Amino acid sequence: MAKLDLSKSEYEFDSLVKMAHRMGPFFSIEIKSNENSWLLDWEVEAEFADESIQRIRNEVYEQIIRDKISTETKPIRDLIFAAAFSNIEIK
Question: Residue 83: phi, psi to the nearest 5?
Fold first, then answer.
């Protein structure tokens, strides 16, 4: 069993759920919480524990970046969709 303790002030639950979903083929990750932390537990052979922690951390960071990009590009995407489904010609 491997464990990882992540601060709630630095990591959002949605990013952890997306990470757990992406890691599904490799690990079944349980996400618990206490007052200040997200507690992640998963089964892995001892020799692969460190590697699995690194993979999980990297995937969490990727999900955070994806969420940030999605938020920052939303106005542009909305404009593109609006233009695509309207009769307005943008020059």
Answer: -65, -40
